[in-house]
Amino acid sequence: MNITNLEITQATIDMFFCLFCIIMMVSIRANGLKQKSMKMFIRLFLIAAILFLGETLAYIFRGNLGTFDVIVTRVANLMVFAMNIAMANTYVRYVMSVFNDRNIEVSRNYVKLANIFSCINIVVIVVNVFYPWMYYFDETNYYHRNNAWYVYTLLMLIVIFLGTAVAVKYRKNLEVRSFISIMLFSFIPIIATIVQLFIYGISITNIGLGIGAFIMFAAYMYDWSHDNSDQMESIKKSRIDIIILFVIMLLSMSASIIVSGTVIQRVSEDNSQMQSETIAQMVSAKIENEFLKPITVSQTISQDVNIRSYIDKDSREEAEKVKDDMTELLISIGNEFDYKMAFVVSDKNRAYYTYNGISKFLDIENDSHDIWYKEYMDSGKKYVVNVDTDEDDNWSLSVFINYGILDENGTILGACGVGVDMEDLKKMLSQFEEKYNIKVDLVNHDGLIQIDSDGSTIENEYLDNSYFEKVNGDEYFYQMSDGSSRMTRYLDELDWYLVVKDYNPVKIDTNRILLPIILIFIAGVLIMSVTFVIISIRERKAKEAYNKRYVVSIKDELTGLYNRRGYEVDCEAIVKAGNIYDYSIIMMDLNGLKAANDNVGHEAGDELIIGAAKCMNNAFSGLGNVYRVGGDEFVALLKGTKEKVYDAVKSFDYLTANFKGKLISELSVSKGIVICSEHQEASFDEMKAMADKLMYEDKDEYYRRTGKDRRRV
Predict the structure, then answer these.
(1) Count of Cβ atoms closer than 10 Å to residue 142 Cβ
(2) Closest CA to 477 of 265, 285, 273
(3) Relative to the CA of 101, which of 172, 273, 475, 535 has its CA 20 to 30 Å away?
(4) Residues 255/259/262/267 CA torsion (nearest 10 deg)
């Protein structure tokens, strides 16, 4: 993957703003604010986060030619432009909602106009998918503006101006700080966009949006913190939580940096291979295309009926007779396909026909220049590519395509072909080498150089061929050594190996990439920590307020015991947990409360109730909760063994027997005790009814024993 310093910087900034917007959005949402403006505020940061994510991907993957890279680059750019429209439109709605929350009527025409311009821009980017009027990508997968980009940008600025106009028109209804933050959110990207008109390569507009979002969030945080300055004491209590948070984040950061360093090294190697392979593919495609034509032309010559008849002659005299016809035919082929050399060889009489007629009669046994014909005949292949000098062109070096000529029965009649000028091939390789700082060679199986931009090495020097057995025709064999990389591929059409040496393999500077990563993590730690503290303060305050309200709702004001609501909540929880048989139920009712109220007064009655509650709390609190469910009715739900429950009951009886109040000297309580584990066939409600019945039986026994009039006491 190719990525420049500028692209790394831009992607780092965009990723920082993406993470920052996500943190801001979560932080604001965690505060539970339900104003419409805050909902629009959150939406604004969500859109910004998606925008910055898209731009991060666009800068990371652009300039790379893989299918995945091309798709991601195009989708990411489309996402950026779409989110720019959404952000500008949402900004107008946010400004409108700020005033609506203050019960200020703002004309809906601003939103309608924003919608119209936004819809036009949506049409522009959709049309651009099919007709690149707004922007396009070149052959190297780089983004470029087109004319409609200026229309799109102008319309987006108009939408932002609409939001600004609303804020200016109703500015008297805003705090100065809020007004300034709204203005900066609009004017910073507007100014950045104007600058962007003249600068290419870095997205100043979106950086301006990120800075504007940061300022708006800072204003929001300032307002919120000042509204909650009385909670500083709570911050001190959460120091341990903050320390734990920092430790976790720092450990995560350290682990991430270590992993990032390892991954970057691997990515560096992968990038180097991808770059070298991309260059090698271009070179390979060009070379294969360069030889496709001469191979096709040679095949065409081999199938010419006239040529077959001309070379199917036994004697040299017969060869001389067709010389002129053959010469004329080869000249026409050469002129048509622009080749300096086209030739035909008769296997029977060994005549070597060229543009000059019969150039010679081959002597494959004694003439070293004619050995190529024997090698071709011995190869058994349709055609063979070889490097040789052209005797008919001042002995210039050429690459010859030697193609077999067969009759209808498959019998060899001779060979034909064309010669490709070595100078043209050298020039082609030189252009690649200068453009990409590489070295290109075509070598045979022995490693002998066949084609090189340096003519002195051709058929004179060898390259290392020890690894050729690992090379196949489908993939490039990649090697990295001495600060350079080497890509090797077998070209089946030529029966040669293409060796591309890249002197500038991609090397990613780990430190240069890790530094912004570290800075981003540090900034993230700070931001998330502050956010955590603020959210924790609010949650603690909300929880304390809720607990206070909840406790009040389930506590009896007179006795401090739980009330009937608390009793019902706990019973429901016990049933839901499915552990009712771990409990014991004690129903209790005071004896003599009516007499105390009637004879001594309600203060005495309250003293009796409070005294009984204290005795219950002292005796039973170690095993469970006690509830006042009526005027003089109480329930204890105790969790423990039967022995512990009865010991607690004995303690309670002792406390009530020794009760001495200021107005009342006697305290008597009737009880009904049910050990739930002894009644597993019954439901919880049935066991409560059993305890209630036992309590009334105990009360009847009390009146029988004391002889008191139940109606009067």
Answers:
(1) 13
(2) 273
(3) 535
(4) -150
